[in-house]
Design a protein that fits this description.
Blueprint: H1 3-19, E1 22-26, E2 30-34, E3 41-47, E4 53-59, H2 71-87, E5 93-100, E6 108-117, H3 127-152, H4 157-162, H5 174-182, E7 188-193, E8 198-203, E9 208-212, H6 214-225, E10 233-235, E11 239-244, E12 247-252, H7 253-266, E13 276-278, E14 283-287, E15 290-294, H8 300-308, H9 315-321, E16 327-329, H10 335-347, E17 352-356, E18 368-377, E19 389-399, H11 413-419, E20 424-429, H12 435-446, E21 450-454, H13 456-465, E22 477-479
Helix pairs in contact: 1-3, 2-3, 2-6, 3-6, 5-7
Length: 489
Amino acid sequence: MKKKDISLVRFIEKLCSDAELELERSTENYFKINTDQASGISIILNIEEQNKLSFYFIQRTYDVFYEGDRTDAHVVLSLMFSVFLRLTDSPISSSLFDIPHPMIEDEIWGRYIMPDQMPFFLGSLSNFQLRNKIKDLIGVITIWRLIFWRTAGCPCKDCMQQENSRDYRIKDDLIKKTKILYGDSPHINYGSRMRPNWHYLYDMENEVTVIESIELSEYLEIILKNNALAENTIQGVNGNLVVDKEVNNFISNTVRDEFYELFKSLNNSIKFNDTIIPLENMLVSVSKPYIIALGRLSGRFEFKAERELLRKRHNKEAALLFPIPSFVWIEKICPEQFENMIKALLEREPGVKNVRKPAPINQGDKGRDLIIEWTVFDKKEISEINPPTKTIRVVGQCKASNNSVGKSKVTDIRDTIETHNSNGYFLAVSTQITAPLTEKLESLKNKGTWTEWWNREEIEFRLSKNQDLIPNFPDVINVKHRIKFVDKD
């Protein structure tokens, strides 16, 4: 182990000790940090090449603290933590994945909380920056725990053991009220607890969670109080676009109507306050004393598809979604440099393990290919020891053009994927893609092919996080104003 790695271990040990967290396992590049048995949140840190930081969270409780079936604790606590992550000053938008119980179909053993959009943690880091980012993450967990238990009640062992039994009856007949909208569901978990105090229902089939709790709804109102989600929302064609500190989500009109009908079904006198907190595959809303979570897609892919429908809308929307760039693109972009720039950015992208250029392949549209090993979410083989991820082979194409890139410029995608024996498709363009091409990529995704694309906005965003790369590609892009480049050790 290198000297600097030893110092990093000691640095994290000191952070955990100060925050009263448990450092369960550590090596020179892997750390597992636990909160406490009442909270059940653990963070897994991985330090990759070039000090690239990757991390995810696990929500898992044990029967020494939560009596009976603990599905309710896993569902409720993971929601409370994920919403907090999304609403911090450095927001993280996550996907949530149930860890199935190996024996009982209607129970879960825990949840993975997998960060997807995390702009404040992008890019290669110096040793100093790496430590600061780890410190920030540990700080987020510590603050969440403090705020949550201050409203939810004392989490000490004595208090939890006195009032922590699981009651499998359900208050106010929540099953009957949700059945009105969703019909009979074969997989429902429900019940109540005294500490934290909640009545709860989780319809696994329809991905609907209903929580009745004065304390937890007050907790959500506290963390929503100083957040500007409503001010950072733009009305789109099929729903609302949320642009929050470089984290982008989409709330469809269909989901908004679903929330309205659910709250109305629970209590006709409750006014739906229209505030919806979007994650990547979950949306949450609160109208005291109820909290509702719907498992629906609402992440960056859905955001990008909706944004393409709005590109020509009026100036206010353009000012928020497409700000005047700090970059100047060369009129005649060098295709090879553009490809090399995308390769360099991909190598710093979280989840990307390897990027290489394949042997030359004749392509009439001068598309240039990359082969990428990319870690993506996959919940098919999820278990307590296997997070919902897998590494797939992705074929990437780079299109340097002065015009929008349409379907005619990106042909035979399936043949390209098969030629390279790949499982996914990635496209990078120096301008924008047209609406028909967007629909084509969406169709690929809906048919099971992993799909991602970067247009000019996504590329400029990543360059702003990796400014040291800009001088390497003078035949692609320059800056309008002097940029202070990232210092390196």
